[in-house]
Write a structure and sequence with these properties.
The protein is mainly α and about 80 residues long. It has helices at about 25-35, 40-50, 50-60, 65-79. The mean pLDDT is about 95.
């Protein structure tokens, strides 16, 4: 995995300096943010760079809105 977040995804990480973040080391944070706010392009990037198991693990962590957790849990179960 590239250790840089693509510039087009910076807008989802308004509370940090996204150019300094390693998306692999902060995978739970990146996944949660994109699950909640990502558009189609962001979700496509997410599926290209993270495994379904990494996604499932991120859904078990605190801090994700219940509606987003329910949607993505159901989606990953059926895809």
């Amino acid at each position: 995995m590239n250790t840089k977040l693509p510039r087009n995804l910076y807008r989802y990480f308004w509370d940090i300096e996204p150019e300094m973040m390693d998306p692999k080391k902060r995978s739970t944070y990146v996944l949660a943010r994109l699950f909640e706010y990502g558009d189609t392009e962001a979700i496509q990037w997410l599926f290209q760079h993270y495994s379904k198991q990494e996604m499932r693990d991120a859904l078990k962590r605190r801090g994700l809105w219940p509606r987003a957790r329910a949607f993505w849990s159901c989606y990953l179960k059926h895809h």
